[in-house]
Design a protein that fits this description.
about 90 residues, mainly alpha, 2 helices
Length: about 90
């Protein structure tokens, strides 16, 4: 694990910090194990958020397309179907 930390690309070691420097393999495995739970949580949250965002974007796209279709229909028929009629009309 110590060697893995040394050959890790520089962009994964800001300020050349090696969290595995001067640690035993058992200690390194314990560090990675502790990081694993946190990273799983972060990954799950990010993935869920991205999927929900894509679904929201798709939904708003459908609404925009439907509204455009309704406006086109309205202009062809000379009325505004998106306007709610006043009470009694």
């Amino acid at each position: 694990m110590r060697i893995a930390g040394e050959v890790m690309p520089a962009n994964l070691r800001p300020n050349n910090v090696n969290p595995f420097y001067d640690r035993t393999d058992d200690e390194c495995c314990e560090i990675v194990g502790a990081m694993d739970d946190s990273l799983k949580f972060i990954y799950t949250q990010l993935t869920t958020h991205m999927e929900a965002s894509k679904a929201y974007e798709a939904g708003t796209g459908k609404v925009a397309a439907l509204l455009a279709k309704m406006r086109k229909h309205d202009s062809e028929w000379g009325h505004d179907a998106l306007t709610v009629p006043a009470k009694g009309q």
